[in-house]
Amino acid sequence: MIRKGYEIVADALREQIEQGVWPVGSRIDSVEQLAVKFGVGRSTIREALMSLKAHGWVDVRHGGGTFVLRNSGAFQIEAPEIGNVEQLRQWLELRFILETEGAALAAARRSNDHLNELDGILAEMASLTDEDKLEQCDIRFHLKLAGASGNELLVRTLETLFLTMGPAMRESRRLWLFAEQSQTARLSEEHRAIVDAVLLQNAALARERVASHLRKVEQMLRRLTYEA
């Protein structure tokens, strides 16, 4: 099986972390420095770092660098990149299970800080027009919602799931969510409705609204990605 460039880089970085090249808590080289060191593009380095982050090895801070969180493989979630209908079905099914119950927990456990962070992401999404940034904001929203549950394992698992979206899925997702203003507005309304349920600490309502949102996402992904 041919391995992707980012997988090779991620493995090399993980080995260096395990060997103590970068101790826990230290900041590793910048994306630009790593790109030169490995002789690859910056996008490959970013994917490698996101893979390490999804598996709990590093914390990638926007504008602040990448820091080592652990130096052993005690926490590991492996998930292949989605490439066929069956993998898509399993991906959607797991996401539905995790996010609906995660939303219910978030409603029960959320703090004012969590609400402020979610509101901030929604405000940021409303001001953006760049499709890539909008997509990243959408993912951040779902991860922050999971974070409000207080379950770090849930957050890391969802990070891994989002990382496994293949190019076809990512492109279809962008086309559906952001190609038309009406879709962007609807997405914003659904996100706001979810946050309102969390604000009210209504677990059943939060679960129901996330379920409704994800069912629409599922219908779109099935239609545009593999059944077109």
Automatic annotation (TrEMBL):
<keyword id="KW-0670">Pyruvate</keyword>
<dbReference type="GO" id="GO:0003677">
    <property type="term" value="F:DNA binding"/>
</dbReference>
<dbReference type="InterPro" id="IPR036390">
    <property type="entry name" value="WH_DNA-bd_sf"/>
</dbReference>
<dbReference type="Pfam" id="PF00392">
    <property type="entry name" value="GntR"/>
</dbReference>
<protein>
    <submittedName>
        <fullName>GntR family transcriptional regulator, transcriptional repressor for pyruvate dehydrogenase complex</fullName>
    </submittedName>
</protein>
<dbReference type="InterPro" id="IPR036388">
    <property type="entry name" value="WH-like_DNA-bd_sf"/>
</dbReference>
<dbReference type="Pfam" id="PF07729">
    <property type="entry name" value="FCD"/>
</dbReference>
<dbReference type="GO" id="GO:0003700">
    <property type="term" value="F:DNA-binding transcription factor activity"/>
</dbReference>
<dbReference type="InterPro" id="IPR000524">
    <property type="entry name" value="Tscrpt_reg_HTH_GntR"/>
</dbReference>
<feature type="domain" description="HTH gntR-type">
    <location>
        <begin position="3"/>
        <end position="71"/>
    </location>
</feature>
<dbReference type="InterPro" id="IPR008920">
    <property type="entry name" value="TF_FadR/GntR_C"/>
</dbReference>
<keyword id="KW-0804">Transcription</keyword>
<keyword id="KW-0805">Transcription regulation</keyword>
<keyword id="KW-0238">DNA-binding</keyword>
<dbReference type="InterPro" id="IPR011711">
    <property type="entry name" value="GntR_C"/>
</dbReference>
